[in-house]
Amino acid sequence: MNIVVASRQRKKKINTQLLTQIAGALLEELKITEAELGINLVGAREMTLVNETFLKHTGSTDVITFDHLEAKAGSRKRELHGELFICVDDARLHARRFGTSWQSETVRYLVHGVLHLLGHDDLKPDSRRKMKRAENRRLRSLVQKFSLAQIGARSKISA
């Protein structure tokens, strides 16, 4: 598995090493055997640009998922090849609105994006409810394994 996390925003310090570990645990939980996952943590300005350029939607959004896997028969559930853009500014805004932390919202967007890469859909009410239940279940599991608050502190580099 190859997971790369890049923080391209300046408002919050991010422990990218911890976020990489969380993503790895999520993929392991989902029984993903092969993965290439890029996670880009961006601000509202960059997310707006990505959203308008690629999806033709106006403004920022919480997470955008790009699936780069060429579908092969029978491989969809065990392989993952994609890229997520997660807006830290939106995570901060939604955390205030929903009474959570921006770190928890960021991990929720990670889970949401990975579920999209696995074929989950949230366009229709039925599929949206099913996806939300899966998202909540995975987030609860990750909260039990990791201190999400530590995402907000860069890891110390040892020599």
Low-confidence runs = 155-159
* Morphology call: globular
**What's the architecture, going by CATH?**
3-Layer(aba) Sandwich
Largest sheet: 4 strands, mixed
- Average pLDDT works out at 92
Count of distinct strands: 4
- What's the CATH topology name? Collagenase (Catalytic Domain)
CATH C-level class: Alpha Beta
Distance between the termini: 26 Å
User: Which percent band covers the strand fraction?
Assistant: 15-25%
Our count of helices gives 5
Structural class: alpha/beta
How is the largest sheet built, in terms of strand order?
A: 1-2-4-3
Q: Helicity range of the residues? A: 40-55%
Radius of gyration: 15 Å
Number of domains: 1
Order of helices and strands: EHEHEEHHH
* Fourth-tier CATH superfamily name: Metalloproteases ("zincins"), catalytic domain
Note down, in words, how this protein is organized.
The chain is an alpha/beta fold. It has one domain (2-151): Collagenase (Catalytic Domain) (3-Layer(aba) Sandwich), CATH 3.40.390.30. The protein has 5 helices and 4 strands; from the N terminus they run βαβαββααα. A 4-stranded mixed beta sheet has the order 1-2-4-3. Helix 3 (88-98) packs across helix 4 and helix 4 (102-117) crosses helix 5.
